[in-house]
Amino acid sequence: MFVYAQQLMTKDFAVIDEDETISRALSMLENTDALVVMKGKEYRGIITEKDLIRAKIPPNAKVKSFVKHAPKIEPDTPIEEIARLMLESDIYHLPVFQDNKLVGIVRDDDLLKRIVEEQLGNEQVSNFMSSQPITINPDDNIGKVVKLFKEKDISRLPVVEDGKIVGIITVRDLLEKVIHPEEKPEYGEFIAEKKRYLKIPVKGVMTEEPIVMPPDAKVKDVIEEMLKNNIGGMLIAENEKLVGIVTKKDLLEPIASHGKEEKIFIQLCGEMDKIEGFDKEEAMSYLKEFTRKHEEFLETGYLCAYLKQHKERKHGLPLVYCKIRLSSPKGFFIADDDGWGFRQAMKKAITAIEKQIERLKDKL
Question: Are 269 and 305 within one domain?
């Protein structure tokens, strides 16, 4: 693609001091997806909406307690490396530094605008969507939504009733309608009665009649619609029935793998530094062994393995969540599972993907 950070970056970004309050950050996030956190003139990191979806955060808590340390890039960092770093860190606004000075920000939207101009933009969105996405019922409660958002590392859920799409609920919906402290001045009462708020039904918070597109829509049309409406994902439907969902993250994967020599490009994602006992080389070896076993059938593609550690423990091992997404000319595969330690979690997710591949082979 021969596109670099200096061609993508913007100098127009919102800045907040690390000693400002969460209440102030939430107010500013109404107009942007992320804030650059500074201490005076010194860069500290990034803070996003998803970092603040915790009902127990008091409005006077300081921003510095929730900062994420985004990977730093340079003006000549290529677009493929930017996409890879975004996926690996699970942060989609990366600071651009030149001579140790912050000169701009590259956002996921900036990369997606480039896709529209490339051949990828003319492909069908069904090649990139997650089929059989997690859904929620309109009568389910907000507590279930928050739990799914955290456990599955997602920020939107289609709301489905009797097989039909009736709405969508996102992180932004929760922040604006349920846990925004400025809209809830009696915030102490909110914390004390957290359970009551978490029992609000989804139908009281969701966005009704969400935008949907068909599976044969072109990627460039889906991206243009997402950017125009400032949404992070698109529901894919056929005859009013949900058949998939595609997010900005899904569309970054082919950019990250562009120009790589491997037949199946492998990407590890998530907060791996927070996973106890995690060994990146060992994790990559599991995935490479799996892709080597199936690459003759799959031909080419890209695989993203996302890992996250939960609080639960057993026999000294932490509970780890693993989600694997694999796209190839033969089809799109996705599986997730929990395990005690990253090894068990990865092996269970890999086994689930292999079962999907074997089922497809049996049909062909």
Answer: yes
